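Dear Dr. K.,

Following up on our conversation at the group meeting, I've run the structure prediction for PIRT protein from Mesembrinibis cayennensis. I'm pasting the input sequence below exactly as I used it, so you can double-check it against your construct before we proceed with anything downstream. Let me know if the numbering doesn't match what you have in your notebook.
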Amino acid sequence: VEIPPKSPDGSEKSPQSKELLTSNTASTLCISSRSESVWTSASRSKWDIYHKPVIVVSVGAAIFLFGIVITSLSCIQIRNKNVYKMCGPAFLSLGLMLLVCGLVWIPIIRKKQKQRQKSQFLQSLKSFFFNR
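The predicted structure tokens came back this morning:
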């Protein structure tokens, strides 16, 4: 019969309980590292903040212009006139949709940035004075 070795500090913990402790600590560190970004206010560049809506706006504008070209080709007498008549408005609508979504996205990001800059204390004071 083997006797498990005692730990140097005299505690009688099994190896499984030590593994559970380390895995629990590791998961706690992962959770805290995820929430750490909420508390740190690292300044980001304008490109980091607005790069997604700028890309959507530029792609939407390019597709919209392509739709204008395709639609104008349907006015000229060519062989595949029906294809241009079908594809032109599709590109126009897709490009316009992306263009508008990107243009609406920018003020939403600005509003979120302003909300992040305000502290919780100032927001509570504001609600206290204006809700009387």
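Two things stood out to me. The chain is about 75% helix and 0% strand. Confidence is low (pLDDT under 50) at residues 32-40.

Best regards,
J.T.
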